Queue: 2 jobs
Job 1
Amino acid sequence: MLDINLIRTQPDLVRQALINRGDKPESLDAVLQLDAQRREILKQSEQLRSLRNSVSKEIGRMADAAGREAKKTEMRQVGDQISALETELAQVESNLEAYTSVLPNIPDPRTPVGLDEDHNVILRTIEGTAPKPANPKPHWDLGTDLGLIDFERGVKLSGSRFYVLNGAGARLQRALIAYMLDLHTRQGYHEVYLPFMVKRQTLFAAGQLPKFADNLFHDAEVDAWMVPTAEVPITNLHGDEILDLEDLPKWYCAYTPCFRREKAAAGKDVRGIKRGYQFDKVEMYMFSLPEKSDDYLEQMREHAEETCRALGFTYRVKQLCTGDMGICARMTYDIEVWAPGCNEWLEVSSVSNVGDYQARRANIKFRRERGAKTEFVHTLNGSGLGLPRTLIAVMENYQQPDGSIIVPEVLRNFVGTDVIRKGE
RNA sequence: GGAAAGGUGGCAGAGCGGUUUAAUGCGGCGGUCUUGAAAACCGUUGUGGGUCUAUGGCUCACCGUGAGUUCGAAUCUCACCCUUUCCGCCA
């Protein structure tokens, strides 16, 4: 959510942001108009309320019955006017909210301007230590040959885009989750285990609703929503709270499965386990002082890169352009790892500074000193790597000519073996 | 799923239609006293919106949430949510 005061005082800044993101700037005009209307109605109704409040007190003190009745009649009319204005106000506010709740964040000035992914900037590519397989097989062949991935049974259970991980495949995924959580804990994050279903308000606060309802799984009866990312519940851990200055920054990490309907991506990446309705992810998250969030973004990106390096991946860091960033973000880095089998760069992490955009929606504040005005915190989120893609990268990068997979060193304690061979 | 009790400021807790501007206590902050501290005493202490002559003034809203009754609602009515205890069921 943007500050309505900012929209009011610097509409051109907001307009340019919309244009740079490839959105229509007309909604801004609607917001400005509705905001003016809202304040006008508010002024009128508050004056009437003030009048009614004072006269009602008078009535309570009046001895004269006839005079009292006269005042009551008068106030009854004022009451009718107030409710008419309130009805109007509710309508205006709900229209206003419909517009403001989907206005995207204003990109950081350093975010490159561009309307689509072709304008993302590749900042650097880092060569990994993993062995370079000669004729790499894609994970869908490798995984089935070794019996690690069972596509048929996944489909039997749940339909297309679902799979079952078997034996060492399941263990490798669990090892990655455990390793990443341990690493992030060493990096300073506080691990939490979260609900995988959340309320509507929780999704609103994280910026997923109302705009992206189509991409979420939802039980209508109890209004429970499956989380599309751990970012959603973590954002709301401190919803409606005023945090103590000395508690900032707060760093969290969490493993959750993520559920996405992927309506927009239907027909895309259908082969293998790259994209599904359900996937696992370890997430990093920070609540920070506004003036520190730029620095923390770099730190969090570095933390995600550390995971890639520890796993020996060849990876590259991209900065997303205005048109490719999510609506909450001011600045985003994507990290992509090289998967030699399917011969493509896989996005395994997206690290964003969302400024006060989510804090405003979730109402998360802090105070610099006793008696000072409350301010919104900044929040940042980043994948501590998305799982199926990291799993793909391990399998494809560490495959050997005989069809076995070497377990990356940092995972061996968790997996319990150095090499994954067929039939084990 | 059933029964009962209950949701009021940072916390505890009163108020159950109009001197409530939400009592009182604790805690916090400032002060008096003191060599210093404690104690005692005095003062102060919520969030959000609107507006203006703007470090402040005026005003509106907020007592779980939403509707309703009334000139006036923390207080009355209805619905819902949540908490606690007990029973049932269950991993």
Note: Chain A has a mean pLDDT of 93.
Job 2
Amino acid sequence: MNTKMDRRKKYTRMVLKDSLMQLLKEKPISAITVKELCELADINRSTFYSHYGDHYDLLSKIEEEIIEDMQEKLQMFNMWTEELIPIEMILEYIVDKKDVFLVLLKENGENNLHKRVRNLAHGFLVNHLMRMHSIEKDKIEYLSMFIVSGSIQMIISWLDRGMDKSEKELAGMINTFANKGLLGVESL
Amino acid sequence: MNTKMDRRKKYTRMVLKDSLMQLLKEKPISAITVKELCELADINRSTFYSHYGDHYDLLSKIEEEIIEDMQEKLQMFNMWTEELIPIEMILEYIVDKKDVFLVLLKENGENNLHKRVRNLAHGFLVNHLMRMHSIEKDKIEYLSMFIVSGSIQMIISWLDRGMDKSEKELAGMINTFANKGLLGVESL
DNA sequence: GACACCGTGTTGGCTATACAACAAACAGTT
DNA sequence: AACTGTTTGTTGTATAGCCAACACGGTGTC
């Protein structure tokens, strides 16, 4: 059902989300308390608990939101273009939420969003490669993982360097690197 | 009594205030509807009416707030300095709320804030002059009005020109102009 | 004049949030 | 171990805000 959410709920979730993002810029989630999060958001703590189990839950919800967004974008891509991966589209999305991605993709070690983005891209690329190439599924899995992981690290590095190239440039690079690998596979 | 206001009320008033200020940048209050104000603020209209009588009431409250703030600043000034008018202090305050002042002081014709600021400064300067000079109250009234009106117009012009001088510079100019006039009166 | 549309001011019922308080768990100190 | 301070998760009550609806007044069109 497409019932509109009460604006109070919308607001509460929004400020909690923004506040967690802000705190995550300063310290890892393990060093953040629900108390200070609510103080920053100016939201009563019991209200926080009526929405979320804890701040890890909130973070998970944020990540889910992002993944859903990206999934939507990828669905749109399925419909009409031939590019290997819709990298430019994804980069535009990432730039739009640069602060979030910088915080969440760069966090010490691999966290959930990193894994989720990778799995999303991986699943998409595997399907794409299987439709376009006659290669064993086994090999496609590895190839896809190779391309996706490489691409993600490139993107993280790019964000870290303050996006010193245009989206178009970076997308071109990623596609070139991905396609070169593909040519190698074709000659198997 | 110093009872803390419920944070919901605080938030509601704040967004309504900010939204009215934003709309006033685009059009005069007579062209603004309560409906669009509430839409912009994302606040239910009946909530608006539980806080304010109408949007003119809201504007009046905003102005009162500003006057009270300035009054506080002037009280502090009374306590410890010799300057004719605490212009630098006032300019700092005005810069801090530049957007508000630009909108409200510049509006077509004289509006309430213009009058209120003038009366506040006038009252202050009259008291000040009477303590420091032996001049007829009558003359002081005129003199004060002269200085205050001139100063306010200078400030409006300064805001309009994007504050092309530092606060210190403008304060210096205003004080010099005011004092020159004062010297003229002394030789009466 | 009739009609449609829009904004206003108001109302009643419901929902979300605030607030204070409590017990428990945890961490650090002596 | 005892103590202190902090955070957590929860609870009950009160408050503020939301929403939909209504009647009314004003405006413009036919």
Note: Residues 6, 8-9, 12, 43-44, 46-47, 50 of chain A lie near DNA strand C (CB under 10 Å from a C1').
